[in-house]
From TrEMBL, chain A:
Annotated Basic and acidic residues bias: 43-52, 757-767
GO MF entries: calmodulin binding; potassium:proton antiporter activity; sodium:proton antiporter activity
Bilayer disposition of the protein: Multi-pass membrane protein
Similarity annotation: Belongs to the monovalent cation:proton antiporter 1 (CPA1) transporter (TC 2.A.36) family.
Protein name per UniProt: Sodium/hydrogen exchanger
Single GO biological process annotation from the record: sodium ion import across plasma membrane
Domain Sodium/hydrogen exchanger regulatory region: residue ranges: 581-670
UniProtKB/TrEMBL annotation, chain B:
Pfam families membership: EF-hand_7
GO biological process: protein transport
Subcellular location: Cell membrane; Cytoplasm; Nucleus
Protein family (similarity comment): Belongs to the calcineurin regulatory subunit family. CHP subfamily.
Domain of life: Eukaryota
One MF annotation (Gene Ontology) recorded for this entry: calcium ion binding
The protein's name in its UniProt record: Calcineurin-like EF-hand protein 2
Protein transport listed as a keyword: yes
Main location group: membrane
Keywords for the protein's UniProt record, in alphabetical order: Calcium, Cell membrane, Cytoplasm, Lipoprotein, Membrane, Metal-binding, Myristate, Nucleus, Phosphoprotein, Protein transport, Repeat, Transport
Keyword Phosphoprotein on entry: yes
PANTHER family, per the entry: EG:114D9.1 PROTEIN-RELATED
Organism name: Oncorhynchus mykiss (Rainbow trout)
Domain EF-hand: 127-154, 160-195
């Protein structure tokens, strides 16, 4: 089995690479042809319009010779750019798909390596075809399109608590560590360049330092890509990852500083002071910009309760604008993005609907995944594109120095940091932190950005950068997983938080705050507590819609757990013994504070005895089966007899299960299924069991006439039918007639507190709602979801 | 330095105290200053009212429980020694620290096999004792409800509290006796990194 998979996977890969390569070369090749065509032929109307009046070739060629009407023509140039972009994205996605089809390979080699290899192949193919490799890792494209999704994804889902707990360590590594790396590598490289016999003596100090600063920054993309796969424990992950994010500010400042002054040839102490001030402005400014946009986004999300569909858009657009605004001022865009995501998240999540939350999550993951894949492929392509200037000394010294400086830096800093940490970093931890310092595409793009005229040795730099990236990603990336296993480093704990942990952690927090107060000490907990109080009192009131700001974190957490359990219950098909004895009707009450009428709280679900149930079911079944034959002739939709009969047993079984399920689910669902008479429901119902609707209706009236009005969303038919139904049922059991609440109650008919009518309704609804119920239940949410249905109603 | 020594000399049995708890002289002095500041009437003992005077503690949902922890059952006042001894529970993990005799009974014999250093254990045991007001070694549903009520203040209804309490017990209760024993408590917290909680650096 695995062999066929392997074969299939490899074949797929090879074919894809060929396909992509050929199409791209065709695309590159055909564009000059088209423009040549323009000169000769009468031309395409659109092109003429675009070009306007000026243009000699148009004037000379505008002798209208009548040709045959072009029935089919090829106009690649028109769609070239979007087409190529889509092709690249498609390639990236298919590669990702392909790798997971070959599990053995993805176990040994990290994805990033494979992607770089693919990029190399594609680049190679393009070059083989003789075409010019497009400059895909263009800095603009990289910094403005490819990098933001990854950073936003990281920032939005950043685990705030471990990040803040280790912020001191992270900052030390990010700032001091990067500075150390930059100067060590740059300085020693310069020294090496000055040695006789290396022919590198024209490389000056400042360019070397610039190179050092470019190459010393740990890259978040590469770190994410590799660390995702090794599942290392949270502390190490957040240390390395946090460092890679925060060193952006340092890199930006150093880069600009050295780039500016490389022309001048020297850096005065004044410049250094200015550099330090610049660093503070860059980092704090970036964070401030991000925070402002984050608050704006949170505030906007407060008002989106009526337009749920565009909620995710606010998250994305505000974040992207934060990034762009920061980049506009040459502040740290990465820090802005992180700050924006982290600030807006708690408030936005309290405001947006469940579905929007899922959308945000999946879109972010999707974009960041595609971006990451593309970046690595482009790295490969850019390597092939060149131009390269290989210099053995320079490159090898770079690689060695980077490794050495990283190790020394980490060890030295840890020695200092451990004096202040409660949980010390062990040698193993230090090793992983040092070894996990991967370089990536940011370094390459920064190098690419260098001006050719100011830096004649740019190509040499680029070659060295690429080599370093390859070294870290391939060698370090591939070996880190076995090393982690070998050293038995603690792995990530997979289990989710239980409510116990939540409660006890809060309890401990309170306890420690209290002790700090007794000691009169304004410590860690004191400030955290103060921040929380401030947050609760002022900020949440502004930024969270409705009554939900009062909801304590514990309750929100508890609700989430109940939701999850409810979802699991439904997906497992019902019939599961539920742990909580008490139906949490009250939890529903809290989530829908505005809409729920007080009557709902006293809702009591009547329990029918087994005997009664059976009776009712038997009656229904017999009646439905009887009318089946009669109805066939009246069907507007021609039905083939056999499928209907085959499906009948399934239908009955489903109905039975649905009854049981419903009894239990009605306690836990906060979203009733969509009202059975919305057209979506009607369509779905009819699609699956067209006759069911007719049958039930007919049986209730006793006369085989069918009037089905599909168009009306609130077909009074259904309500009347139910009324009929309940009357029938009541008659059968000799109970008094009960009134069936009308459709006004927007909770859906399922929740009506009528006892006699309930069973039948349950049956009928259960059967009818079969496809719809499952669909709705698969993603429940707060009841303001009802408003989402409105656009669907005609 | 001189003031430290003079303050130290005022405290009886300070050597013994330092050895027992592991506090340095500087710490003892700071705690003594704090003790004196709280002890407004200079009686040399603290009463619950003195603790209650700390404003921020009054805002703390479990403030009164914490205060109660300082006073052994039956005692009305707490002297400096007991004050320091109890605060010693909250010092960060320190392997050289001597064993604390006031830990709950079932724990002592198993200290050596635990993966946590003794003092981290101590924080959990203090927390457990704060939950378990009637000192029967288990957190019953009623006790849990009380804690939840005080933590969540007025913001939730009684039924919600009950369902949360039920859920909590059901999750943690392994021997199905409808209460959480110390072992179960500790087990449910083993994934939480307690070390990080011990960040009252002041007391190092």
């Amino acid at each position: 089995m695995s062999l066929s998979f392997l074969e299939r996977g490899l074949l797929l890969l090879v074919m894809l690479i060929f396909l992509e390569g050929t199409v791209l070369t065709l695309g590159a090749a055909s564009s000059p042809d088209i423009s040549a065509q323009d000169n000769t032929g009468g031309g395409h109307d659109r092109r003429d319009d675009h070009r306007g009046i000026a243009g000699s070739h148009e004037q000379t060629n505008y002798t209208y010779t009548k040709k045959a009407f072009p029935v089919l023509s090829l106009d690649y140039h028109h769609i070239q750019v979007p087409f190529e972009i889509s092709l690249w994205v498609l390639l990236a996605s298919l590669m990702k798909l392909g790798f997971h089809l070959i599990p053995r390979l993805s176990g040994i080699v990290p994805e990033s390596c494979l992607l770089i290899v693919v990029g190399l192949l594609v680049g190679g193919l393009i070059k083989l075809a003789g075409e010019e490799v497009p400059p895909v890792l263009d800095s603009n494209l990289f910094f403005l399109c490819l990098l933001p999704p990854i950073i936003l994804d990281a920032g939005y889902f950043l685990p705030i608590r471990p990040f803040m707990e280790n912020i001191g360590t992270i900052l030390m590594f990010a700032v001091v560590g990067t500075l150390w790396n930059a100067f060590f590598v740059g300085g020693l490289l310069y020294a090496v360049c000055q040695i006789e016999g290396t022919y590198l003596s024209q490389v000056e100090l400042l360019p070397c330092l610039l190179f050092g600063s470019i190459i010393s920054a740990v890259d978040p993309v590469a770190v994410l890509a590799v660390f995702e796969e090794i599942h290392i424990n949270e502390l190490l992950h957040i240390l390395v990852f946090g460092e890679s994010l925060l060193n952006d500010a340092v890199t930006v400042v150093l880069y600009h500083l050295f780039e500016e002054y490389s022309g001048a040839g020297e850096v005065t102490p004044m410049d250094v002071v200015l550099g330090v001030i610049c660093f503070l402005i860059v980092s704090l400014g970036g964070i401030a910009v991000g925070a402002i946009y984050g608050i704006l986004a949170a505030f906007t999300s407060r008002f989106t309760s009526h337009t749920r569909v565009i909620e995710p858009l606010f998250v994305f657009v505000y974040s992207y604008m934060a990034y762009l605004s920061a980049e506009m001022f040459h502040l740290s865009g990465i820090m802005a993005l992180i700050a924006c995501g982290a600030v807006m998240r708690p408030y936005v999540e309290a405001n947006i609907s469940h579905k929007s939350h899922t959308t945000v999550k999946y879109f972010l993951k999707m974009w960041s995944s595609v971006s990451e894949t593309l970046i690595f492929i482009f790295l490969g392509v850019a390597t092939v594109a060149g131009p390269h200037a290989w210099n053995w000394t320079f490159v090898s010294v770079t690689v060695i120095l980077c490794l050495v400086s990283r190790v020394i830096g980490v060890v030295g800093l840890t020695f200092i940091i451990n004096k202040f940490r409660i949980v010390k970093l062990t040698t193993k931890d230090q090793f992983i932190v040092a070894y996990g310092g991967l370089r990536g595409a940011i370094a390459f793009s920064l190098g690419y950005l260098l001006n050719k005229d100011h830096f004649p040795m740019r190509t040499m730099f680029l070659t060295a950068i690429i080599t370093e990236i390859f070294f870290t990603v391939f060698v370090q990336g591939m070996t880190i997983k076995p090393l982690v296993d070998l050293l038995a480093v603690k792995k990530k704990q997979e289990a989710k938080r239980s409510i116990n942990e939540e409660i006890h952690t809060q309890f401990l927090d309170h306890l420690l705050t209290g002790i700090e107060d007794i000691c009169g000490h304004y410590g860690h907990h004191h400030w955290k507590d103060k921040l929380n109080r401030f947050n609760k009192k002022y900020i949440k009131k502004c930024l969270i819609a409705g009554e939900r700001y009062k909801e304590p974190q514990l309750i929100a957490f508890y609700h989430k757990m109940e939701f999850k359990q409810a979802i699991e219950l439904v997906e497992s098909g019902g019939g599961v013994k539920l742990p909580s004895a008490m139906p949490s009707q009250v939890s529903m009450q809290n989530i829908q504070p505005k809409k729920l009428p007080p009557a709902v709280a006293e809702r009591a679900l009547p329990q029918f005895t087994k005997g009664r149930e059976e009776e009712i079911r038997k009656i229904l079944r017999s009646n439905l089966q009887k009318t089946r034959q009669r109805l066939r002739s009246y069907n507007r939709h021609t039905l083939v007899a056999d499928p209907f009969e085959d499906g009948w047993n399934d239908f009955l079984l489903k109905k039975q299960r649905m009854i049981e399920l419903e009894k239990k689910m009605s306690n836990y669902l906060t979203v009733p299924a969509a009202p059975p008479d919305s057209p979506t429901m009607c369509r779905a119902r009819l699609a699956s069991d067209p006759n069911a609707f007719y049958n039930i209706k007919a049986s209730s009236e006793g006369v085989p006439t069918i009037q089905v009005d599909l168009a009306s969303p609130q077909s009074p038919d259904s309500v009347n039918m139910l009324n009929e139904f309940s009357k029938r049922g009541a008659k059968d059991q000799g109970l008094g007639q009960r009134e069936v609440a009308t459709r006004d109650e927007d909770q859906g008919l399922m929740m009506k507190p009528s006892s006699a009518g309930k069973e039948e309704k349950g049956e009928e609804e259960g059967g009818n709602k079969n496809p719809g119920l499952m669909r709705c239940l698969s993603d429940p949410g707060p009841s303001n979801e009802d408003e989402e249905d409105e656009p669907f109603l005609p | 330095m001189g003031s430290t020594n003079s303050t130290l000399s005022k405290i009886p049995n300070v050597e013994e105290l330092m050895q027992e708890t592991g506090f340095t002289p500087a710490h003892i002095v700071r705690l003594y200053d704090r003790f004196e500041a709280l002890d407004k009437e200079k009686t040399g003992h603290l009463r619950p009212q003195d603790f209650g005077a700390i404003n921020r503690l009054a805002m703390n949902p479990i403030g009164d429980r914490i205060i109660g922890a300082f006073f052994s059952p039956g005692q009305e006042t707490v002297d400096f020694h007991s004050f320091v001894r109890i605060l010693a529970h909250f010092r960060p993990a320190d392997k050289k620290r001597p064993k604390d005799p006031s830990m709950p009974e079932p724990v002592n014999s198993r200290t050596s096999k635990l993966k946590y250093p003794p003092l981290v254990f101590s924080l959990i045991s203090v927390a457990f004792q704060l939950y378990d007001q009637d000192k029967d070694g288990k957190i019953s549903r009623a006790e849990l409800l009380q804690v939840l009520r005080s933590m969540l203040e007025m913001q939730v209804t009684e039924e919600q509290l009950e369902s949360i309490a039920d859920r909590t017990i059901q999750e943690a209760d392994l021997d199905k006796d409808d209460a959480i024993s110390f072992e179960e408590f500790r087990k449910s917290l083993e994934k939480v990194n307690i070390d990080h909680k011990m960040s009252i650096r002041f007391l190092r």
